[in-house]
Design goal:
Alkaline Phosphatase, subunit A, globular
């Protein structure tokens, strides 16, 4: 699964941590314990050229997400659907048989945990500062900045996002479809925020 924008999620891969939990080997917990493991997101190392994490591009938003749910997931399976870390909470509610909370954002990943190839209509949405968002579908990433500019990348042919297709009329329908997923509500800036506006982009592509 890919979380925002981006995450490489394994639906039920073996947990690559020697000691995930001290209770896991105990039989009374093994059949009713859900394990979730996720990583920090990535960072730029001078590409485009940009340094550190603070962009809406793939390499800075992608992370790892793994889940093991007794009786649902199977060892070794992987899912390449785009998902978000906001999907973890509704997933845990469903795995524990708890009701969903009204107004909750994110979608339960249970359909993908049951079948990694299941249809999935939810892209991964990432926000960096107010009103700057990216929407990552299975093939395309669409970015909209607070100043009205935007970017569009085709991961089928351009996995490192070097060719901005936002002004190419052949992709107008793709842009419209992904733009439907942009957030309608933006939280106000934090009183302690030192900088607003769009992320600094040192080069345009």
């Amino acid at each position: 699964m890919t979380s925002t924008t981006g995450s490489d999620v394994s639906a039920a891969a073996p947990i690559p941590i020697p000691r995930t939990s001290t209770v896991w080997p105990r039989a009374e917990y093994r059949g009713n314990t859900t394990i979730v493991l996720w990583s920090d997101h990535g960072r730029r190392l001078g590409e485009k050229p940009h340094w550190r994490k603070f962009t809406l591009w793939e390499e800075a938003t992608r992370n790892v997400l793994m889940m093991t749910v007794p009786g649902v997931t199977r060892p070794g399976e992987r899912c390449n659907r785009p998902v978000s870390l906001m999907d973890i909470y509704p997933t845990l509610l469903e795995t524990q048989g708890l009701p969903a909370k009204p107004g909750m954002e994110g979608a339960s990943l249970m359909p993908l945990l049951q079948n990694p190839a299941a249809a999935w209509e939810y892209p991964a949405v990432t926000t960096f500062r107010r009103n700057n968002h990216s929407v990552r579908g299975e093939r395309f990433r669409c970015i909209r900045y607070s100043d009205g500019s935007g970017e569009l990348y085709d991961h089928q042919d351009d996995a490192l996002e070097w060719r901005n297709l936002a002004t190419d009329p052949r992709y107008a329908a793709v842009k419209r479809d992904l733009a439907r997923r942009l957030p309608d509500v933006n939280a106000p800036d934090s009183p302690r925020s030192r900088q607003g506006g769009p992320p600094r982009r040192r080069m345009e592509f």
